[in-house]
Structure formats: C-alpha cells, structure tokens
TrEMBL record, chain A:
SUPFAM superfamilies registered for this protein in UniProt: Adenine nucleotide alpha hydrolases-like (SSF52402), DHS-like NAD/FAD-binding domain (SSF52467)
Lineage: Bacteria, Pseudomonadati, Pseudomonadota, Alphaproteobacteria, Rhodobacterales
Homology family: Belongs to the ETF alpha-subunit/FixB family.
InterPro entries in the cross-refs: DHS-like_NAD/FAD-binding_dom, ETF_a/b_N, ETF_a/FixB, ETF_asu_C, Rossmann-like_a/b/a_fold
Source species of the chain: Ruixingdingia sedimenti
Protein name: Electron transfer flavoprotein subunit alpha/FixB family protein
TrEMBL record, chain B:
Residue ranges of every copy of the Electron transfer flavoprotein alpha/beta-subunit N-terminal domain listed in the record: 23-209
Cited SUPFAM superfamilies: Adenine nucleotide alpha hydrolases-like
Superkingdom classification of source: Bacteria
Pfam families documented for this protein: ETF
Similarity-based family: Belongs to the ETF beta-subunit/FixA family.
Protein name (database record): Electron transfer flavoprotein alpha/beta-subunit N-terminal domain-containing protein
Record lineage: Bacteria, Pseudomonadati, Pseudomonadota, Alphaproteobacteria, Rhodobacterales
Gene3D superfamilies assigned to the protein according to its UniProt record, in alphabetical order: HUPs (3.40.50.620)
PANTHER family: ELECTRON TRANSFER FLAVOPROTEIN BETA-SUBUNIT (PTHR21294), ELECTRON TRANSFER FLAVOPROTEIN SUBUNIT BETA (PTHR21294:SF8)
InterPro entries: ETF_a/b_N, ETF_b, Rossmann-like_a/b/a_fold
Protein source organism: Ruixingdingia sedimenti
Keywords: Electron transport, Transport
From TrEMBL, chain C:
Residue intervals passing through the bilayer: 6-23, 65-84, 104-125, 145-167
Pfam families named in the record: CCG, Fer4_8
Annotated ranges, domain 4Fe-4S ferredoxin-type: 261-290, 318-348
Keyword annotations: 4Fe-4S, Iron, Iron-sulfur, Membrane, Metal-binding, Oxidoreductase, Transmembrane, Transmembrane helix
The keyword Cell membrane belongs to this UniProt entry's keyword annotation: no
Xref: InterPro entries: 4Fe4S_Fe-S-bd, 4Fe4S_Fe_S_CS, Cys_rich_dom, HdrC_iron-sulfur_subunit, Helical_ferredxn, NarG-like_sf
UniProt-recorded name of the protein: (Fe-S)-binding protein
Presence of the UniProt keyword 4Fe-4S in the record: yes
Amino acid sequence: MKVLVYADVEAGQPAAVARELVTGARALAGPGGRVDLALFGADPSAAADMGVDRILTLPALAAAPYDPAAHAAALSAAIAAAGPDLVLMGYTTAGLDLGPVVAIRHDLGLVSYCQTARAGDGAVETESQIYGGKLIARAATPLPALLLMNVGAFAEAAPAPGQPEVVTLEAAAPQGLRFIDATAPDPDAVDITRADRLLCVGRGIGEADVIEEAQEVAGLMGAELVGSRPVVDAGWLPKERQVGKSGRRVKPALYLALGVSGAPEHIEGMGEAGLIVAVNTDANAPIFDHAHYGATVDLTDFLPAFRAALEGR
Amino acid sequence: MHIAAILRIVPDQNEELEIDDSGADIDREWIGLKLNEFDDQALEEAVLLKEAAGARVTAVALAGDGAERQLQTAIARGADDALLVDHDIDGIPGARAAAHLLAGPLRDLGADLVLTGVQTPEDVFGQLAPFLAGLLGWPTLNAVHGVSAGAGGLEVVQEYSGGRAARFAVTGPAVLGVQTASRPPRYVSGSKLRQASSATIARAAGALPDGFAAPRIAALAEPARSNRAEMLDGDAEAVAERLAGLLAERGLLGGRE
Amino acid sequence: MTTQLALLLLVAAAGAAFVWRGWRVLAPVLRAPPVARTDHPAARAAFVVQDVGLHRRLLNKRWSGVLHALIFSGFLVLFTAIVQSFGSGLIPGFTLAPIGGNSWIALLQDIFAVLITIGIAMAAWQRLFWRPKRFAGSNSRDAWVIFALVMAVAGTMLLEFACHILATGQWTPWRPVSGAIARGLALAGMGPEGAAAAERVFYWAHILAVLAFLVYIPGSKHRHILTAIPNIYFRNTGPRGALPPPPADAPGVAEIGQFDWKDKLDLISCTECGRCQEACPAYAAGLPLSPKKVVMDLRDHMFARERGEEADLPLIGGVIAPETLWACTTCRACMDVCPVHIEPMTKIVEMRRSLVEEGAVEPMLQDALASLQRNGNSLGKPARQRAKWTKDLGFKIKDARKEPVDVLWFVGDYASYDPRVQRITLKVAEVLHAAGVDFGILYEGEQNSGNDVRRAGEEGLFETLARANIDLLDECDFRRIMTTDPHSLNALRQEYRLFGKDYEVIHYTQLLLELMEAGRLAPAEAEPQVVTYHDPCYLGRYNGGFDAPRALIRRAGHSLHEMGRCRENSFCCGAGGGRIWMDDAAMAERPSENRIKEALALGDARLFVVACPKDTVMYTAAVQALGVGDRIAVRDMIDLVRPDPGVAAA
C-alpha cells in the first residue's frame, strides 16, 4: 500500500505527531509498501531520519509560515504526484484545515478522531473516538482514504538515518489568505509543562469559587493548578493554565483531575502523566479509562476532605 | 459582508449515551438535544462581527428536530435572517453530506463568509467547515479563536497545540471553523425568544450529488476498559484519606522547597 | 409695625426658598411615569396610623424607635409654639391663650421641649458612641445639622419663655421648665429689663431657627417629615409575593426617568437610617450591595439630572454597578424593615430586567437561564429525567396528568434533581403514601415555577415557564397544590395570579401538620432535642407561613430554641432571587455560614431544621464548609415525622 503522511511542522522541524504517523504508515503500508512524507514549511533535511521512502516538498513553502490555503494546494499536488492509497494526518489544526478539503478535491474517504487504523480488504478499518471519547466508532472505509489520527495514536518512530528521495512539487499560490504574524506562549507566564505535580479542574467543578479552594489544595500538594478548556473558556483560569489540545501538553509525575470528564482533546494533553488520579461524579466519564486511580465522590465533599487529609499529614 | 452561521443540533454528550439495537448508533429516543457548543460560539462571533463592522447574518440549519427553534433563537440573538435547508436524508446528515446539501443554498444566498463550529461530537467522518470550503473552493481556517474586522478585511486568529497561535488576513470569501468567539455567547432573554418565535424562516432545498454514498459507522462500542482506573470506594473523607496515603507512599506529597 | 413687616418679609423669603427647594425635589416625582397606588384608602390610612402614629416598624429598634417617638411627638407639640410665635408676630393680638396657650398647652410645650432634648441626646449618643454599622455610608453631617436646628428651635423657645417670665414677673406653674430656667437666669443676675431685651433676641432666634429649618429640610433627609406619610400611604398594597410588572413601554428600567412616581417618592423619602443595610444578607456577605446606598445613589443621580448633570452617566454600569444588582437575594428584608416603606428590592429587579434584555447576565446565571430555556430546569438536566427520583420508590406515584388527585405535588427543580435533596423528596413521597394521602405529580411535564427566574429579571422566560405549567395544570384534576419548595409555592400562589390563576397552594409543612393532627403521622423515633428553625424567606416573609413549621417541631417532641433573627426578621440563606445559580466567590462570608454560626451561638441547638430544598443545599454546604458537622446537623421537616405505625399497618 502507498501511504502519504502529512507532517505538521513546529519551529521548522517535523512535529512529534509526524513521527507517530510514520510509525503507523509503515505498519499500514506493509512490506513492499511505500511511505511518502509531505513536508512543507521545513527543509527536507529535517526529515531525513524519519524513515520514509520519499519526501515531497515545495521549495517556496520551506521557509514560509504555515498557511492553510498554500498547504492545501501543496498537499493536493502531493496526492496527485504520489497517488497514495491512504493519507495520514494528525487530528491537529492543520489536519482540520487540510484533510477534508483535499478529501473533497480527490474524492477520498475520510475518517476523523482515529485511535487505531488497520489495513483491510480494499479498505481501512478504523476505531474513532466519538461523543467526547465516551464511545468508540468502528468503520471500514474504502481506499483511497484519508485518516485524521488522534495525537498519540501511534508511538513515535525512532530516528532512522537514511537518504530518502526528495521530490519537488509545484503548486500555484492560492489567494485569499495572508499570514500576518504568529504568537508563541508568553515565556514569562507560568509554565505548567515544567511542573511535576498538577491539579486540574474541569467542567464538573460547577462553580468558580471551587477554584479558590482547589488553589489552596494545590498549594498544599505543591502542585500547579490547571484546567480543562471549559474552565479556561469561562475565564476561571488563565489560558496559560489550560491543558489539552488547544492548551498545553503536560507530562507531570502526578496529575489529579477533578471534575474532568476526559474528552480526547484533554487526554491528548495529559495522557502521559506518571500517575493520574481522577475524581468525577460520573462513573462513566472517559477520564477513568486513563486514570490509575479514580473515585466518584462529589467535589464539594472531596475538596474539604482532601484538604483536611493533607493538612493532617 | 454577508455571514452565514451554520447551526447544528447534537446529542447532549453530558448525558448517559446508550447504543441502540442496530449497534451502530446511539439510542436517540430519549437523548437531550442541544446546539453544538462550537456553533454557539460561531453564531456569537458572527453577531459580534455584525455589531462591530456591519454585516448581514443569516443563520442556516439543515431541517431536523429542533432546527426551526434554533434558527428562531439565532434571530433573537441578532441574526438578521434564518434559512432552513430541506433535504431527504433520513436522520441526521453527516458532515460531508451536510456540506453537499448546504453548498448550493449558501451560494444562492450570496454569503461571502461562512462561520460554523470547528467540530461536533459526532463528525467522525470529517468536519463541516473544511468540507464546505473544499466544495465552495474557498480557503478555510479552523480552530479559530477570534475574528475581527480590520481595515483591509478580516483578521482571524487560529490556534495550534501548545498555546501557539497565528493571525491571518482574510481578503476574500472563506469558511471558518470557530472554536471560541471573541466574547462568551450572550444571553438571549425569554421575551426576545418569544418575539422571535414568530420570525419567518426562509427555506431552500439541498441536494446530494449523484452517487453520493454516505460513510457509515459499522459499529459503536464502549471504550476498552483495560486501563480502567482502580476505584477508591467510600465517602469523600475515606477517599481523601486513602488518596493522601497513596500519594504520600509515592513521595508525591510535600517535600518541596 | 416694622417688626411685623420684617417678619412678613422674612417668612415670605423663607417660604419662597422652601417652595423653590421643595419644588426642585418634587418635580422629578411629579413628572414620573404613572402607577396606580390609590386603591383601598381605608387600609392605606390604617397603615399610616400604624407606621407613623404608632411607630410600628420604628420601634423594632427600641432605642432608635423611642428617640424618634420623642422627637416626633415633641415636634407636634412644639408646632403650637411655632404657631404662636408667627401668629403673634404677624397678627396683632393673636394668642393661643383662649384655648389653653398659657395653661395646658404651655405645660405640654415645656415637657415636650425636654423630651425632644432627650431624644436628640439619645440620637447623638448613638451616633457618637455606638455608631451602628447601619449608618455606614449615610450622610452624618446632615444628621448633625438637623440635631442642631432642632435643638435651636426647642432651646430658643424655652429661653424666650424663660425671659418672658423674668421680664413680666408672670410666674406660672404651667411652665415648670421655662420657670426653672428663668430662676437660673435670675440667679445669674438677669434683671427684668435685660430679660425683656433677651426675650426679643430669643424670639428672633426662634423665628430664625424655625425658618432655617424650613428652608433646610427640602434638601435634607429630614424632608421625610413631609414625605413619609404619603410614602407610606401610597405603598404597594398588592400581594407581597407578586412583583410589579415592568414599565409599560420597556423591558425594564435602564434610565432613572423610567422609575414611576412612587419609586421616586421612595427616593426622596429615604432617611438613610440603614435598617435595610443591616438586614441585607448580601451586604452582610460583603457583596457590593447596600439597599440604602442603592436608594441614595438613585436619589442623588435623579437630583443631578434635575440640575442638568450626569447626563451621560448610564444608570446601570454608571450609577449602579451590575454586580450590585446581581447581589440581591430578593429576600425582601429591606422592604419589610423600612420605617417609611421604601422598596429597594423591586427597583433592583426592575434594573435586572433591563440587564437581562441586553443579554448582560452574570455568567453562571446565564448557564442556568439557558438551561431553563432548553430543559425547563436550572440544573442542565434533561427534562425527561425530572421524575427519575421516583424510580427508587417502592410504589408508583400517581400521574396527575392522567388521573384525578386530591393533592397535586409540585416537586420543583432542586427537589427533583439535586442528589442532596432527593433523599428528602423520596421521604416526603413515602410518608405521604404511608399516611394515605391521595397525591400525584406532573412527572416530566413539570417545569421550573419561574419564581426566581422572574426575580432574576427574566420576565419573558418566567412567562414561558408559567404558561407551560398553567397549561398543564389546566388539564389536571386536583383539589389543591402542595410543594416542599417555598419558591414554587410563592409563584404558584401569588405570581400565577398574573395569568388569572388562583390556586390553593399549601406548603408541605402545613399538610404534615394536618396529618399529624389527624393522627396519621407520628413523631419520628428520635430523642427529643433542642432544635432551631430557619424561616425560609418565601415561606415566612412572603407567605406568612411561620406557624405550621413551629407547630410541627413541637408536635414532633422537640423544643425550639429560636435564633434572634426569626420569623419576619429571618436572615436569608443567600440562595433566593437567582443567587443560588450565581457565583458566590466574591463573598467575604456566605449568608448561610453566618446563619449557621448564629445557630451555633445558641449553644444548645443540635439540629438546624429547614423547610426548603434550597436551604438543605445551602446549609448542608455551610455546615461542611465550617467543619461543624459534629456540633449541628441540618434536618428537613420530613425527618421529624414518620407515618403513624397504626395507619401504616392498616
């Protein structure tokens, strides 16, 4: 099978998710299959060790910031050039921007939120997370197809030094969008990615004043207080304390999740924490599938009790 | 500027979801339905743009349970018009089918900016905004975190993982998948809702291309419970005490600074 | 003759100044939108007698009430002296002597001059040494000016009389005080001639003091001596639990001019006594709301507008902060303690209405209201799960939509959905069932009654909810409605009259009491304890339901140790008026915790008995937050009873 991987780029380098996708692509392509990498926004040399057969590139974009319209045109050219049976992209902003667009353009089947992918008979069999991870949807999609894989679905490929062939593409520069500038996270703001203990509050905390109490408990634990997207969107915590897809990816030794349901977007940001403990009144919350310890007590009861337990030590 | 804000009604995923007898769908008979939360944000952004820069806002929805009420609510919130797109799909069209159904009516409407939510809990087979962009041949930006009207057109902020973001100038028509509006969605008073309940809703017909085969879920399943957390039983005090003990054993309490 | 002319000119000038200053105050009131407040003249007059003549509300604060009674009555009596002074100065030969001006009137004048002095001294003492917190934010300079003027009026009068006695030698037993002063003056060496001169001086000083007072009062809080009577007379005589409708041409008040004339009469009648501030649970919690400040700020803004100032200052967000408006629990305490019947709470709701219409709603309240629009309940739960709690019962509750029932139980949101209250709801169902009550519920057809929705300022949603419930009730066959929730009780009993519905609605405490009296309920098997009881605002203050809960407690064998703030003076738990849905992070002390501390201070009360689902939620949380679960426990009324074993067996 011919698999084309689109590489997200961060800071001029292929992002971790791209290396994950190469792992999956290799497995799906099978022996004798071909794995191509569509790499725009970075120099092909940056991907020399990724273990792909060819790198498809568009020199005009190599040093340019990400532009969805230009990348869509380039990816379209890559698909035309490589004729893949399967296109793999991460379920990232770029995956969202480009995947469905090229799927329409090239009449590819498309499956999103994929957690697993397996080659079937003229089709790709997938398991996707649906309803915020509460259920799994299985589907068999005829080839050619495009998959938006969840970040973390595959392990990152180890560097494999090699000299993949570099194929130069051509695509007309599209009109309609113009990159203005980019903003990186404020370096002075608290860096939750460095904390080794995090206390995370989610939608289930219900009231803003619980934040204060959680803050005090976090202090007792020596932890930073972080939140899931709804809590940050509600303005209860600043953006730099958001964990998850649209926030930060964290990997602390301890992650105590209070009232967090565990949507895939959140799990993406903290699934690799050392010890995950979840407290949520909903026994069916997906967070319990990722936690090491769980409890279904009410937070308004738990917080004061936990605080007392910490103070008692 | 003519903005189309596309609204979708989705099952309330905060509720318990049960798999129906077919094994390929949830049991929808009792499930609560609500406006997709990101569509809520998209509509708010459209109305904010209208207020800031002047625009016509048309709320658009595919015919279905509760769609008319959602459109009336949108008018109460500040949309100028509402358009209900009829179709002959049984049940809720997927994002790709929805894009096909909507593309024609959106062209006829003369909209030059389409805003909708970045995703729904159900769009396993792709997301509406980029599908529509592909069909309309317009650029698309997703995970949008704010749209503002600048001198030379729109300025759109797009978010990436790790807290990064970029600003784009949008000079022509575009489709935006909105994640968060510039301000939280406003409250619409009951009296405005009551007034809007008599608003007229325009209708249009959507059509699928010949031979369109909607992708189907083969089976739904509960997530594998292999990694299920070890549950701590007892009341809050018992759980708290047990947890504090567990953390202390692992050296995850105290001992800092 | 020159004296006469001088006095005439002086009186004319002062009168003109008074009229001019009074007009400036009154003009915005007379220009304001209409409101009907002239019905029931007899009842209105009766209120004036009680609250002005008998000082009913004033005397709730003993010291202040007494000092006010002294000054008030003294003023009435001194009015005779004023008449005499001006009469004799303007009309030659004018005297009150024929009707007792030199006898009993003289005696009264002397006595009441002393009583006024005592009253002023008490007032001064209070302001100087006790400094009640309720005066915080009041204009104390105004108060001192008034004290000084009152003392000047009374003092100059006594001195004038004393000098008169000394000058004329007409010693009379009818003027004991003036006589005593005269003797003092004589001892100090004043002769008849000097006294005659001094009499003229004090006469003019008295005249000037009276006129100064007259000119001063329109711009002072002391104008209440003129506005209090009309303000009390024109008070709202409508049902206590029914909010006035919004202005005819607007969703709410967003502009000072939209307040009706009675609202504005309220504003110019405020004496800044601060009783409302002291009673306000939001103020006590440290939230940015004092009903007194709201009234004063509105008043000052109204006057500023009259002067052509503050034209660009928005009413909401300029004069009154939105946080102030959202802080109100609509407990009604401010309205019920006000000696002159000012209504701060309804003004707050009026302004909330315009905020809601603009969509500028407190974020958490917005979630709740949006859920009410979508699901008919505030908790974000699907409507179909409303009766899910009944699954745990060993029997099926009748569906009142399908079969006739004697008692239609309107369950309410918290009792239906909140896990902390469901236990109580289940127990109520079991007890009624065992006691053989023929009752049913509306299952998933019931929606929030809209009581607090209306108080949050959401008129449109209130109407939607009310009409949905009424449409459903219209299809049901029942004798009376019962609810555990005082908020639902208030809406069903009082607010639904807006839609022409006059249901018989009872609180479950009343039904339980009836059952107890009929021998169908027995006290729960528990040791008699000392308990205290919290009056829910919407059961007590709003609906007069003070006695049934107390009778139940007694019949259940417990002894009731009342908290200081009980019955009409109950202290709100902080949940009403939509507050239960809002963020209470800004509170220094939650009202519910303040209340639990009050109960603990009783020393012997082991149980904190409540009769409202919201109270269960609020006080259970408060006991936990204070960590005093070992000293006091929150119990619902239903926990005090059980089915009579005999009836249950039968």
